Amino acid sequence: MKLNLEYKIIKSNRKSYAIQIYSKSKIVVRVPLNMTDEEVYNLIDSKRDWIENNLKSYENSTSKLKYLKPLSDYDILKLKDKAKEIIPIKVDYYAKIMGISYNKISIKCQKTRWGSCSSKRNLNFNCLLMLTPDNVIDYIIVHELCHLKEMNHSKRFWNEVKTVLPNYEESHKWLKENGNIIIQSVLPNI
């Protein structure tokens, strides 16, 4: 039996689509501005099995992170302070290993991204990374540094990541299974 699912569709200036599952009643579909409503509904329909499978996985993994509670402004400030201490040290370490230079590092509290980089070689990281295991923090840092070499997710990009972190798939998987749970738990008013 197919589930009756409700979606929030957000059109923005992006190149590809993303489907985020926060709970059975909170599924966000992010699409490019130029995508027609019909194309969006066809996309959702084509991804229905994937969504339902990931909903099951989400529901199974929520019990692992029950200890998380909504964060106060003070909690977020403390996470930002902690991230400002830890992340730049790790970025410097991996940038030297990879022979990469970057401009500046920003730490923010974000609802949709763990990290990003700009064409100006600026790196942005989510302070909520401080709620993830150390290997996940390393993975996100290496991921963003690799974008300074390859501004895409091509095979060459993933080979760069694997060169630095041969077991990156474990961290990638952990983040796919738990990332939205963390964000939804600690920032419930998305």
Could you write a compact summary of the structure shown?
This protein has 190 residues and is α/β, with parallel strands linked by helices.
SSE topology:
Blueprint: E1 7-12, E2 18-23, E3 26-32, H1 37-46, H2 48-61, H3 73-98, E4 105-108, E5 115-117, E6 123-126, H4 134-147, H5 155-164, H6 168-186
Parallel strand pairs: 1-3, 4-6
Antiparallel strand pairs: 2-3, 5-6
Shape: globular
Please count the helical segments: 6
- Tell me the total number of β-strands: 6
Averaged pLDDT:
85
Report the β-strand fraction as a percent range: 15-25%
Largest sheet: 3 strands, mixed
Gyration radius, in Å: 17 Å
Task: Identify the strand order in the major beta sheet.
Answer: 1-3-2
Structure classification: alpha/beta
Distance between the termini: 29 Å
User: How much helix, percentage-wise, in residues?
Assistant: 40-55%
Q: Which runs of at least 5 residues are low in confidence (pLDDT < 50)?
A: none
H and E string: EEEHHHEEEHHH
